[in-house]
Amino acid sequence: MKSVNKPKINPLSRVPRQQRLIMAIRGGAGVGKSHFIRSMSEAGLGKLCIFDTERKARLLRGVGQTFDALEIEETDELPEFIEWAISGEGVEQNYGCFALDSWAAYFGAKHSEMLEAVRIRTGDPLAQPSAEELAADQMILQSVLRKLCIESGKCVVIADQIPAKGKESKEDNEIGRVLPMTASGLEYFVDVMVEVSLQERDGEITRVFQVVKSNSPAFEVGFEMTGNVAFKDFLDHMRGEQALELAFEKPAKSSVPEFIEEKAPVSIAPAPMTVEDLIKKAEANGFKQADIVTGARIYHNQPNIYHLTNEQILDLDRRMTARIEKMNSTAAEDKAPKKKAA
Question: What is the mean pLDDT of residues 11-15?
Answer without folding.
Answer: 79
